[in-house]
Amino acid sequence: MDSDFSRRSALICGASGILALSGLPALALTTDEAASLINKAVGDINKVINSGKSAGAMYGDFERIFRRYGDVPTIARSALGPPARSASSAQMRAFTSAFSGYMARKYGKRFREFIGGQIKVTDARKVKSFQEVRATAKLQGRAPFAVSFMVSDRSGTDKFFDLLIEGISLLKSERAEIGAMLDKRGGNIDKLIADLKRAG
Asked: Distance from CA of residue 41 to its chain's centroid?
């Protein structure tokens, strides 16, 4: 992942963060509801980016945004990939918590580069069995770029479950990175969880 893509990823992942999921979402969510959710999310992101808060305070804000608007358990399970099938319930809870904090710290560290930037929702449309909400990210001194949030109500509430930055799935990128981290730890999920609590 090049530095330019990483910086662009950081702008979104505060909502995020971020992140190619299993299962089909429910059909009840409307396009207007999906657009409303992401409008609220990007409004919160924009406030944090330009709040003037310390880095530590921003990390906490980004994690709260991620948990409020993102389907975090599904995102975390997808990021872990196939090893999630053999993980215990306790391990998945611990991994999900560690992953959430890791994402907030990892991308939050880059957010000072985006002071004065803004994300704006442009439109939304139904795609298969979920809703795609498209937005434009505008940064000072850089050309605008496209961002798409994938939204469903599969979790029981309206949440985003992935996003694309100029057509690239951020979650797939994170899945590759988490997989590499797990490989370095010999496939030991507990060691990965312990290290994720400090990583980012």
From this structure: 11
Q: Phi, psi (5° rounding) for residue 2? A: -80, 165
Q: Which residue has the tokens 């990021």?
A: 79
pTM: 0.78
Q: Distance (Å, rounded) from C-alpha 45 to C-alpha 16?
A: 9
Task: Read off the pLDDT of residues 48-83 as tens digits, 9 standing for 90 and up.
Answer: 888 888 878 888 998 999 999 999 999 999 999 999
What tokens were used for 83?
A: 């090893």
CATH of the domain at 178: 3.10.450.710
* H helix or E strand, kind and range, residue 179: helix 170-184
* 22 CB neighbour count, 10 Å cutoff: 8
Number of domains in the chain: 1
Domain that holds residue 124: 3-196
Which pLDDT band holds residue 21 (cuts at 50, 70, 90)?
A: very low
Segment 121-125 long-range contacts (CB within 8 Å, at least 24 positions apart): 121/35, 121/38, 121/39, 121/42, 123/35, 124/31, 124/32, 124/34, 124/35, 124/38, 125/31
Q: Which pLDDT tens digit goes with each residue over 30-40?
A: 999 999 999 99
